[in-house]
């Protein structure tokens, strides 16, 4: 892992005070291992992968709650085979007390496996509020999406914000991760310019191997030109190396203007490295406050 650099005081006080993390249903042992490093109450998102079943997702949400954190289960619209499947998941979350906050996403399948084509359909179903959901996260794409045009993305963001308000649900946005702060801040400013005031969590990769980071970036259409890689601290010529987001966070803290960008926090994509990410955050905050 790269050594942690000293950051400006604004980083921890304004952006890292209430960070969130992401895990898969299979990551419960890793969360247990990292639990002592994570502040109680931290929001932990639980992905909705095709190779994981209902029980695994529910067990993960229970583990997050048991360890003193706030579970945020994902719901993948196109992976739901029926309304009954959707309601079964929501009912189980409600029974466990783990479904007050969820994150809705369209999901990877090209064709829906059931009646829900996208996350807007989940919101407009009315089922979220019926099963006790209070807060709903939606996705944001500062660098666009490899399979969706920008016009569609912007329309979807506006429509989902309006649908959440109509349903009486508290909304928030989590962005896809990136390596370049400039398009992220420009996108946030454009969001605010459209009158969308939802809180935004900026997606940041946790510390990981360069090869792994580049592979995920290619999959999600994230820019990795030589200049961007250098700015972030990635070495395209040394794929065996590792990189953390210290440069990105410093640049974000320096460029963040609450008057233009509003409420912004950080969401860490851990890529299976919950302990490594949690250790990195703890050390970064410690060095920042020294």
Helices and strands in order, then pairings?
Layout: H1 9-15, E1 20-23, H2 28-34, E2 43-46, H3 54-66, E3 70-76, H4 83-96, E4 101-105, H5 119-124, H6 127-130, E5 135-140, H7 150-167, E6 170-175, H8 181-193, E7 200-205, E8 208-209, H9 210-220, H10 226-232, E9 242-243, H11 246-255, H12 258-261, E10 264-269, H13 274-289
Parallel strand pairs: 1-2, 1-10, 2-3, 3-4, 4-5, 5-6, 6-7, 7-10
Antiparallel strand pairs: 8-9
Features:
13 helices, 8-stranded parallel beta barrel, alpha/beta, disordered N terminus, 290 residues, two-stranded antiparallel ribbon
Describe this structure in words.
With 290 residues, the protein is α/β, with parallel strands linked by helices. The chain is 45% helix and 17% strand. It has 13 helices and 10 strands. Strands 1-2-3-4-5-6-7-10 form an 8-stranded parallel barrel. Helix 8 links the parallel strand 6 and strand 7. It is globular. The two termini are 21 Å apart.
Low-confidence stretches: 1-10
Secondary-structure-based class equals: alpha/beta
What is the string of SSEs from the N terminus onward?
A: HEHEHEHEHHEHEHEEHHEHHEH
Straight-line N-to-C gap: 21 Å
Instruction: Kindly report the spatial arrangement of strands forming the biggest sheet.
Output: 1-2-3-4-5-6-7-10
Rg, nearest Å: 18 Å
Percent helix range = 40-55%
Shape call: globular
Give the biggest sheet.
Answer: 8 strands, parallel, barrel
Beta-strand residue fraction: 15-25%
Number of helices: 13
* Secondary structure tally: strands: 10
Look at the structure and give the mean pLDDT. 87
């Amino acid at each position: 892992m790269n050594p942690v650099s000293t950051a400006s005081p604004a980083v921890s006080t304004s952006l890292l005070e209430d960070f969130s993390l992401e895990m898969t249903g299979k990551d419960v042992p890793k969360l247990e291992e990292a639990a002592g490093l994570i502040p109680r109450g931290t929001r932990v998102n639980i992905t909705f992968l095709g190779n994981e079943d209902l029980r695994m997702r529910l067990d993960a949400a229970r583990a997050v709650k048991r360890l003193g954190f706030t579970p945020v289960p994902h719901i993948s619209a196109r992976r739901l085979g029926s309304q009954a499947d959707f309601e079964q998941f929501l009912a189980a979350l409600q029974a466990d007390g783990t479904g007050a906050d969820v994150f809705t996403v369209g999901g990877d399948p090209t064709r829906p496996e059931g009646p829900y084509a996208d996350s807007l359909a989940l919101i407009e179903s009315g089922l979220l509020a019926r099963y006790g959901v209070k807060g709903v996260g939606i996705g944001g794409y500062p660098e666009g999406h490899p399979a969706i045009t920008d016009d569609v993305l912007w329309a979807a963001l506006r429509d989902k914000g309006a649908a959440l308000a109509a349903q009486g649900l508290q909304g928030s946005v989590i962005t896809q991760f990136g390596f370049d702060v400039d398009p992220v801040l420009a996108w946030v400013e454009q969001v605010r310019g459209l009158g969308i005031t939802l809180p935004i969590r900026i997606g940041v990769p946790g510390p990981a191997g360069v090869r792994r980071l580049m592979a995920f970036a290619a999959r999600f259409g994230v820019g990795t030109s030589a200049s961007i890689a250098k700015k972030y601290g990635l070495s395209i010529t040394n794929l065996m190396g590792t990189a953390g987001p210290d440069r990105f966070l410093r640049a974000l803290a320096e460029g963040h203007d609450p008057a233009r960008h509003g409420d912004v926090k950080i969401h860490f994509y851990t890529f299976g490295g919950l302990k490594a990410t949690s250790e990195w955050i703890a050390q970064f905050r410690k060095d920042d406050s020294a």
